[in-house]
Design goal:
7 helices, about 170 residues
Length: about 170
């Protein structure tokens, strides 16, 4: 149990530092901005209680908000992400029979499931984040293009990081 807490705490710190000091400065034509920090919420163990999940998502969002100078924007998007994560896992994990797996990583769940999981949750997060950031319909095409390109960029980075730390495990 303490090993899981230590791993997730170090994952939190590494992803926040990576987001703030490296990825904050990366932008492709001011359209595609990677938000890799949401990987922390995606990789939390399945048995994480919902209250703890929401609290961690809110704290992660507030931490990013503090560095990005966006009061509450990322906190709201991360809280929505935690809610969508609960719904997605309750729909897919029970049907596919992955109940005994500890966490939703690429090496444990497989490429197809993880890609779908990361894509759906990233799309929800980014759509909410960019629409809340702009908050007007007059720039809907710009917002939608930022949303789609940033989602693709973020999911690509998630898959690359998942493949870098890939460990082959057999499901029972």
């Amino acid at each position: 149990m303490s090993r899981i807490i230590l791993i997730n705490l170090s994952r939190f710190v590494i992803l926040v530092l990576l987001q703030v000091f490296l990825l904050k400065n990366i932008s492709l034509y001011n359209l595609a901005v990677p938000y890799l920090y949401i990987l922390f919420i995606l990789l939390l163990p399945f048995e994480t209680p919902n209250l703890v999940l929401f609290a961690l998502a809110f704290i992660l969002g507030l931490t990013i908000d503090a560095f990005y100078d966006t009061p509450g924007l990322h906190a709201a998007a991360c809280t929505l992400l935690a809610f969508v994560r609960i719904l997605f896992i309750s729909i897919t994990v029970q049907k596919d029979g992955f109940d005994n797996e500890p966490e939703p990583t690429l090496s444990i769940m497989g490429f197809t499931w993880f890609f779908t999981y990361a894509l759906v949750l990233t799309l929800f997060h980014h759509f909410f984040l960019f629409n809340l950031e702009v908050f007007r319909l007059s720039e809907i095409t710009y917002t939608l293009s930022r949303f789609l390109l940033s989602s693709i960029f973020t999911v690509f980075l998630m898959l690359v990081s998942g493949l870098l730390f890939f460990r082959k495990k057999e499901r029972k």
